[in-house]
User: Fold this.
Amino acid sequence: MRSLRLLGAAAEAESLRLRRQASQAARRGAFYAVAGAFGFAAVAMLHVAGWIAISEAYGSLIAALALAGIDLVIMGIVLFAARARPDPVAQAALVLRERSMAEFHASPLFGFSSPGLATGFAFAENIARTIFKR
Assistant:
C-alpha cells in the first residue's frame, strides 16, 4: 500500500507543478499582451511627436535614428521585465515527484507487469499490515 501512496504523492506533486507552470505562463502571457497594446499606442504617439520635434531641429535622418534608439531601449526594458523567474513551489513539487517515483520504482510493486497482480499485491500488503499490527 505504501507503493500506491508514493505513486499518488508523485501524481499530486506533478499536478501541482503543472498547474503552477500553466498559471505562471498565463500570467506572463497576459502581461505581454497588455504591455504590447500600451507599448504600441505609446510608441506610435511618441514617434509622431518625436518626429515632428526632431525633424524640425535636426532633419529627417537624425529624427529616424533617435526614434530607433529610443525604441531599442524600450524593447530592452520590456524584455527584461518579462524574463522567466523560477517558481520555488513548482521546484519543490518536482523534487517530491522525483523522490516518490524513485521510491516507487524501488518497491516490489513496480516489478509486476500486470496491473491486476500489482493491485492484488497492494491489497495483500495492506491486509498483512493490518493483521500483524494486532
Observations:
- The first helix runs from residue 2 to 58.
- The chain has four helices and no strands.
- The CA atoms of residues 47 and 81 lie 23 Å apart.
